[in-house]
Structures are given as C-alpha cells and as structure tokens.
Amino acid sequence: MRIAVIADDLTGALDTGVQFTQWGYQTQLTDHPETSIAEVTITNTDTRNKTPTEAYQTVYNIAKQLTHDIIYKKLDSTLRGNPGPETQAILDATGETTAILTPTYPPTGRRVHNGHLYIHDTPITETEYINEYRHRTSYIPEILETQAHITKNPENIKPGINIIDTTTEKDLIETTRHNTRILAGSAGLADALCQTLRNPPPVITIIGSMRIQTRNQTTQLETRLGATIIPLDTTKALNRTPQYDAIHAAETALKTGQDVVITSTPSTEIIEQTKTKAQRMSLTPEELEKRVTAALAEITENLLKHKTSGLILTGGATALAVTERLAIKNIEILDEVEPGVPVLRLDQTSAITKAGGFGQPDTLIRATKYLKRKHR
Q1: 221: how many CB neighbours lie within 10 A of its CB?
Q2: pLDDT in tens, 67-82
Q3: Half-sphere exposure of residue 169, counting CA atoms within 13 Å on the CB side?
C-alpha cells in the first residue's frame, strides 16, 4: 500500500504526515513523490495563496505522475486556499471519477453538517477565517467553487466530489471504509484512514472511579469513538455473584471490533444506589470498594482472552485489583499519553492507567488511540 499526500502549505503537510508516522508508516516529505520508495510521500505545493488556476495546474502536474494506491488531498480544516480546484485537479489528472471530501477534525471542533462547515457550533461565517474566503458562505460547495454532492452516508456517493457530513472520529472511520482512491480532508480524515487500513483490535477500558471527570471522559469515548458502555451489575458485585451478563455483552461487542467500557459508576444515581445497598448489607466503604473492584477484575480477566490493542484502567483501586487478579509479575513503564497518564506493559499486555480525577475531556480518547496506533 503506497499513499501520496498533496498539501498546499508546509504546516499542513507536516500535521497530516505525523498521523501516518504515528500509525507506523514510513513517511517522507518530498518534491518527487513519483520516485520515492517511502510508504507515504507528502508533497507541499505551496498553493494556499495562489489563484485557483495556478493551484489547479500545479496539483494537476504532480498528480499526473502518481501511481499510488491512495491519493490524499490534504485540506485546511477551515477550507482556506483552493480546496475545490485542487481536488478536481487530482480527479482530472488520474482519470478517477469519484472523490470523498470532508474537512472534519474532531479534536479541534471542525465538523460538517448538512454540507455546512462549523467550528464547534459556530458556522465558519461567524469566525475570523471567513475573511480569507472569496465568498461569505459556510456552504462547502460554494466554498469549493465547484459542483459537489452532499451526503450523510459514504455508501451513497456519486461521480464527482462527494462532501460527507461528519462530526466524530467514528464518522470519519466509516467514511474511510468506502473503497475510494481519492480522499480530501484534514489531519482528522488522515488519522481515520490509517485506522481503517491498520484495522487494530479494540481497546478495553475498566472504570472503577466515581469522579465526575471520568464519567465525562467516558461519555466522550462513547460519542466520538463509538465505544460500547457496559455497566457493572453492582448488586451482583456486592453479593459476589459472577458477572456473566456483562461478560457476554462485552464479548459480543469485542467480536464486532467495538471498543468496550466496563464501568461501575455510569451515573450519580447508580453510585448512590450502590452505596445504599452496601449500607443495608452493613458493608464498610472499604468492603464496598473491594467487592466492586474484584468484580471489575473478574470481568477483565475473562475479556483479555480476546485479542485487544490494550487495556485502560481508571482508578487506583481498580488498577491494583486487576493486576492482582491477573497475577502480573512485571510492570514496565514505557511512555506517557499526557501528564499523569502512563503507558505500561503488564507482563505481555499493553495498558494505560489514570487516576479518576486526572485528565482532559478527551483523555480516554487519546489513550485509546495511543494503544491502537502502537498495536502491531
């Protein structure tokens, strides 16, 4: 698999190139992609501020020489420059009839809805970027200055440039699963393309922390990556009854490639109900914690029989219970996703641990992506 990336400025070339590097591809910035032996070649045309005609011709001349399996037109995530003429130039030069285009970049809030470009919930027309457009519009076909089709489903693409409504990483991954040689997007679509091509196994996240910060991070993981959230049956946990239903639900999700989150604290209501049940059973807070984390460790042991990219453990007591249940002999510290979020090897299992109150809203997303990118 050889991939050629055509960018219109240097910083864009590099921020997209690093996506491929993080997924293990040999990536090279070059003025001669037609002769490079790198898996991924990136060419900077420096056409961001050129006229549409100049930009079209420059990209056409480069694309005409390419024989790569995939040609990726790197776009600015706010669609500055000449995204329409440059994407059309690749179609014309290669003889391909179909291109998929979306500038969505979830970590920065760029998204496409009904063919309009937004930064978070703000149309691009209400931001400073609009001053760099030839037309005051958020409607992407008008920004591109070319004919294009709008669709929410990449399965419904037509000949020409197809603008796909996308908001999350999950949307972008679905988009890249369509077998199209010409793709146009920001670094967000490039990252999704890498995941589709590498197809890493899912990640298992085990949550025992009661911190609201962790619950918010879990919601982000579900919304943006499409993770399956499976609540622990805390009644069974308090009674030391096996968690067969949770294990079965998780195994079903893992077999379809979905990331899985097992959580003992899905909501404030569940937390309070569990505490009340524990009090009725005359359990101390320490006994409550021990029974819940033991149940989480039991589930973890069963799920690790399946192929995964790794394990995320949230909450110190949970991490300890799991490592003890798995009889881990060696914990090797390898890296750090962000401050306070270390990457480990638990004997032969890749893992990331996090205190309940640590991290940003997207910390679990970043941890999940880290494990998938490193999986080989």
Answers
A1: 25
A2: 999 999 999 999 999 9
A3: 22
